[in-house]
Amino acid sequence: MRVILTFAEQRDGRLRRAALEAVSEARRLSGPLAGTVTTVVVGPGSDALTSELGAQGADRVVVFDDPAFATYATESYARALAQVIVQTKPSVVLIPFTAMGKDMAPRVAARVDAGLASDCVALEVKEGRLAGRRPMYAGKAYATVEWAGEPQMATLRPNVFPLGPVDALRPVEVVRGSVETKARAKVTAVTATAQGRVQLGEAQIIVSGGRGLKGPENFHLVESLAEAFGAAVGASRAVVDAGWVDHQMQVGQTGRTVSPSLYVACGISGAIQHLAGMSSSRYIVAINKDKDAPIFKVADYGVVGDLFEILPRLTEAAKAHRASRG
Amino acid sequence: MKLVVCVCQVPDTETRVRIAASGAAISEADVQSWIVSPYDEFAIEEALRIKDAKGGEVVLVTVGPERAQAALRTGLAMGADSAIHVKDAALDATDTLGTARALAAAIRTLEPVDLVLCGQQGVGGDHSQIPGMLAELLDLPQVTVAVKIEIGDGQATLEREIEGARESWTTPLPALVSAQKGLNQPRYAALKGIMAAKKKPLQVLDAAALGLEAAALAPKLRVTRLELPPPRPPVRMIEGDPVTQARELVRLLHEDTKVI
């Protein structure tokens, strides 16, 4: 039987949704690949997470629960995953493309001499081999990639792969892993920067603001609308470079590439590098005073008008809609 | 301190991507201008600032075809001291791991090195793999996507961004660090720098010179097809006064898209 291996990211004893997405995708691939699903979870207290991973589709969970794994360290986490790869010789390895996965996966790939496809948005099996689909040029183009040899490693974009059915009665085998926990680079502190805020990469809805807002003092109009929609807040490069908002909010080629269910662009004209970063969103709303702005070429719904008139009214209408639905 | 910065030449972010006849790459003939990958500019700038504060030298390394030399000249014009261009037809078809191996081999010729800096991602390929692979190949500790670096005595303290939080890191030197936007504001090359760059040492090395065997460069991942994203449906404009537009938009988002 082929082994499909996933890395299940947990922080503070809780699995990330992206970890479950990877297990779920592995379960789906286990059909055409005729394989079993093994999941690696690293961190003390991970024992409590094995049933959740099993219910999502893992046949076997390898737990590294040494107290030294309490905080993330690239070298030791990579060593744990690489050890399981060497021992189980998986055909496929799936890792969430989160901050942790993005940091760790290349180190593991170099260690086990494997091809790695980053930020995949789809996977399929062709004649027993994996093919992946991934954006390049921040989404200006999409590549189909294939691997030579095994393991075929891929990081998966969060929020794209659906969660399959959960079966709490599925049996799961739990195996204990042990590895050297030494690491040279270490985390000394973690400081929350956006408590309670919806994260751009994981958001279902994003409301973004651009130059059309005229100044940082007006950015609250975008934030209020985002709050009414339960959305994350994004921004164009122009306003990030002008220092209105933090660069972590930037959507586009030198910021984040996002694909939420709904993207609302407020006062963003639509520079090519911005369009690249958001045009794979399922639905796009553009609000702009210039009816010829390029943003309308990718939008599903367009509103031409004054942001200062429209945004407060849209916020009111969104709030009223929410209230009416309880 | 000896500071090495890995540099990658990429199409300008304003490039309108077209697909090459092969169907598996972009058409380079349609790329109007090539630039230093923006994240690599943060890495170069940081190296120059560390050099200004601590003394030492900044060496640039790139892997790429002939045109990639322009990226090295840009970095030299910003203030780097010398550069290595790894150029070999065998490298044109390799993947990230092969590229990382070539960079690692070039960096080994410079040892002892105190700090290797990279951009957190090459804009275009968007793999974000070279820093971690390079750290593993050179057996260095790594801190990626750094937004703050402070060099101490034989060690560095850094900050890096994760989802909704900032991590503080400490690492002994030598180490590898990848640069994220927000780390600094890169300088522009002044005319004087551009003139000086023409005379700075630039070494060209091929795979054989670095002892890179064909097997080490054979790609483990390849693009079999590259395509433009599917066209989006035409826009539906919402007319009326602002109150009507707002209500109509919320109604459509609820009833048609079911997103809210």
Report on this structure.
The complex is a heterodimer of chains A (326) and B (260). Chain A has helices spanning 17-33, 50-56, 74-88, 99-112, 220-229, 237-241, 272-278, 307-324, and strands at residues 2-8, 10-11, 14-15, 35-42, 60-64, 92-96, 115-120, 122-126, 129-136, 141-147, 152-156, 173-176, 186-192, 205-209, 232-235, 262-266, 283-288, 301-304. Chain A has 2 domains: 2-176, Rossmann fold (3-Layer(aba) Sandwich), CATH 3.40.50.620; 200-324, Rossmann fold, CATH 3.40.50.1220. Chain A has a 7-stranded parallel sheet, with helices on both faces. A 5-stranded parallel sheet of chain A has the order 15-14-16-17-18. Helices cover 29% and strands 29% of the residues of chain A. In chain A, α3 packs across α4 (99-112) and α5 (220-229) packs parallel to α8. In chain A, β2 and β3 form a beta hairpin. Chain A is of the alpha/beta class and 326 residues long. With 260 residues, chain B is of the alpha/beta class. Chain B folds into 2 domains: 2-217, HUPs (Rossmann fold, 3-Layer(aba) Sandwich), CATH 3.40.50.620; 234-260, no CATH class. Helix content of chain B is 30%, strand content 28%. Chain B is built from 8 helices and 13 strands. Chain B has helices spanning 38-54, 69-78, 89-92, 96-108, 130-137, 191-197, 214-217, 242-257; strands spanning 2-7, 9-11, 34-36, 57-63, 82-86, 115-119, 142-151, 155-162, 165-172, 175-179, 202-205, 221-227, 236-237. A 9-stranded mixed sheet of chain B has the order 9-8-7-10-6-1-4-5-11, with helices on both faces. A two-stranded antiparallel ribbon of chain B has the order 2-3. The longest helix of chain B has 17 residues, at 38-54. The chains are: A alpha/beta (326), B alpha/beta (260). At the A-B interface, α3, α4, β7, β9 and β10 of A face α4, α5, β7, β8 and β9 of B.
